[in-house]
Design brief:
By secondary structure, this protein is an alpha+beta fold. It contains nine helices and six strands, in the order αβααβαβααβαββαα. The N terminus is likely disordered.
Length: 419
């Protein structure tokens, strides 16, 4: 029979498992959407991208403000004394001057030039917005992957707990039958070893779930060490959008528009430029009637590019090379995208077929355990056969959990492209 130390160890293991099971069952259940919402709200990258878009809106306003008349108040004075005939030439310095002017200047640009500059900022904002959507998909995929992993651990724990409960009930019955000499002491000890192994496995799955659940909180930016039971992720295969409208292909379209815009900006850089300026105020050298030196002035400057050593054609060539590079990346990504989607769909279907076959095998394993359990009450089954049936049941159930989790992970990878 069992020694006192073995009985105590068994008692503590059962109590520990029971306490954890009760705490886990009574805990609040969190869903996948709960973690996705928290992760998006906590993500510094998404906040950074949103702030960059807002900053670009300010840049657009600054650009428009820069082409409005610019008004400045300017003042300056100079005193260059001549002592004993020594000093700066009065013809250059006027010996002493003072000015206090209000200056107005305005750069004249065509509407097309201004629109091209605004378009550059708009395209940058759209690229940032698209990058934000892709980053959100990356975050969603990472959180979902970890959630599924932790949920798989929880399923393993639940199943192992059911097996431990089943074996514990059978152990009590087998103990009575052993005392009645229906089974030998060696049979009972063999069964007890199996039970203790399952109890240790239950503790291992509990620790694994705790570690993966803590990692989930870490990825979502949650500072919490409590144990919360996770709900079924409920993932379904999403209908993928047409590649032309996908955010993953939209970036290539935006890059193309940027290159067209860059070419327009190069063209406008070689257009004539006119700047108007005017000022009014006081400007005097104190050589004559200083009190009469109040006045106004107006002028303009005109710039017409004529020759720059062929730099314009060089910039055109650079833009053409960038467009060629963009086309190469787009073609390669398109091939990878279609191949990956087809592969994921194929793997999901294969996992689904495997799950159907596993479910059939589970029915047979459950039936065998049920029969062996009934025969155990009459002492008509070998303990080795019962243990073998339990181990086979454990193997097939673990295989089903692994296959199901693998299927969910594949769906998660496929759903990544659904935006």
């Amino acid at each position: 029979m069992l020694s006192l130390s073995e009985c105590r160890m068994k008692f503590f293991i059962v109590v520990f498992i029971t306490i954890f099971a009760c705490s886990l069952c009574s805990a609040q259940t969190y869903t996948l959407d709960h973690y996705l919402d928290i992760a998006k709200n906590n993500s510094p990258l998404l906040k950074d991208l949103r702030n960059q878009v807002a900053s670009n809106s300010i840049d657009s306003l600054r650009l428009l403000a820069g082409y409005k008349p610019q008004v400045n108040a300017n003042s300056g004075g100079l005193y260059a004394p001549i002592i004993g005939g020594y000093g700066y030439s009065e013809a250059i310095t006027n010996e002493h001057t003072l000015n206090a002017l209000m200056a107005v200047s305005k750069t004249i640009v065509t509407r097309g030039n201004l629109n091209a500059q605004l378009q550059a900022i708009t395209l940058q904002s759209q690229s940032l917005g698209n990058a934000s959507k892709i980053s959100e998909q990356d975050l969603k995929k990472a959180i979902t992957t970890q959630y599924i992993t932790a949920y798989g651990d929880l399923l393993q724990y639940r199943f192992n707990r059911e097996v431990v409960d089943l074996l514990s009930k059978e152990e009590q019955l087998l103990k009575k039958l052993t005392r009645s000499n229906v089974y030998r002491q060696s049979d009972y000890l063999t069964f007890l070893v199996t039970l203790k192994q399952q109890q240790l496995t239950l503790l291992q799955t509990r620790l694994l779930y705790k570690n993966d659940y803590t990692t989930l909180n870490y990825l979502a930016g949650i500072a919490d060490t409590s144990m919360i039971e996770l709900a079924d992720p409920g993932l379904q295969q999403a209908q993928l959008p047409d590649p032309a409208t996908s955010v993953f292909f939209r970036q290539y379209h935006l890059d193309s528009l940027k290159l067209v815009n860059n070419r327009d900006l190069v063209d406008f850089a070689y257009k004539p430029k006119i700047n108007l300026n005017a000022d009014g105020g006081y400007n005097s050298d104190f050589m004559g009637q200083a009190y009469k030196n109040f006045g106004v002035s107006a002028g303009f400057s005109f710039t017409m590019p004529i020759y720059d050593g062929g730099q314009r054609k060089m910039q055109y060539r650079k833009i053409s090379l960038e467009e060629e590079t963009r086309e190469n990346y787009k073609a390669f990504f398109n091939t990878q995208y279609r191949q990956q989607i087809a592969q994921l769909n194929q793997q999901i279907n294969e996992n689904e077929n495997l799950l159907n076959q596993i479910d059939e095998q589970i029915k047979y394993s459950e039936s065998l355990i049920k029969v062996d359990t009934e025969l155990l009450q009459t002492g008509d089954v070998k303990i080795a056969d019962l243990i073998l049936a339990v181990n086979n049941y454990l193997t097939i159930k673990n295989l089903r959990t692994t296959t199901n989790i693998n299927k969910l992970q594949l769906i998660n990878q496929l759903n990544y492209w659904n935006r």
